[in-house]
C-alpha cells in the first residue's frame, strides 16, 4: 500500500469557540491532506473543491468580521489573500508537477495551522467576548461583506 502523508492533524489546539468555524476548519484540514496524497484521477477535483471551499470559508469569517467591525479585520483579510494566491499558484504553474504541488501544499498547510491557531483563535475569542455572534450565521451578513468588498 502507498504511504499516506498527513501534513495537518485536527486537534483541540486548533479548536475555536465557534462550531461552524470548527466544522469548516476540519474539512479544510481533510482536503489539504487529500491533496497532499493526490491520487491521479482525483487531483483536479480535489483542487477544485479546495479552492471553492477555501473561498466559502474565508467569506464566512470575513462576513462575521465585517458585520461586527473586528479591529484586526484588514490584517486578517490580507492573510486570507496570501492563502488564496498560493492556491492560484498551484493551479497556474504546477498543476501536473506533483512534487512541486506537494511542496507548496506542505508549506501552505503549516501556514494554515499557524493562521487557525493564532489569527482565527484571536478573532473568535474577540467576537465571542464582544458580540452576540453565537446567535447568528455568516450567511446573514454576505450582503454587508459584498458592499465592503466593493468599497475596499
Ligand atoms: Fe479559518
Ligand atoms: Fe481566517
List the SSEs and their pairings.
Blueprint: H1 19-36, H2 43-67, H3 73-92, H4 98-130, H5 142-151
Helix pairs in contact: 1-2, 1-4, 2-3, 2-5, 3-4
The protein binds fe (ii) ion (2 copies).
Q: Give the termini separation.
A: 50 Å
Estimated helix fraction: 55-70%
Query: What structural category do the secondary elements indicate?
Result: mainly alpha
Tell me the β content.
under 5%
Order of helices and strands: HHHHH
Characterize the overall form. globular
Rounded mean pLDDT score: 88
Largest sheet: none
> Which molecules other than protein and nucleic acid are bound?
fe (ii) ion
Give the tally of β-strands. 0
Rg, rounded, reads 16 Å
Q: Stretches where pLDDT falls below 50 for ≥5 residues? A: none
Number of helices: 5
How would you describe this protein?
The chain is mostly helical. It contains five helices and no strands. Helix 1 (19-36) runs antiparallel to helix 4, helix 2 (43-67) packs antiparallel against helix 3 (73-92) and helix 3 (73-92) packs antiparallel against helix 4. The termini are far apart. 22% of the residues are buried. The mean pLDDT is 88.
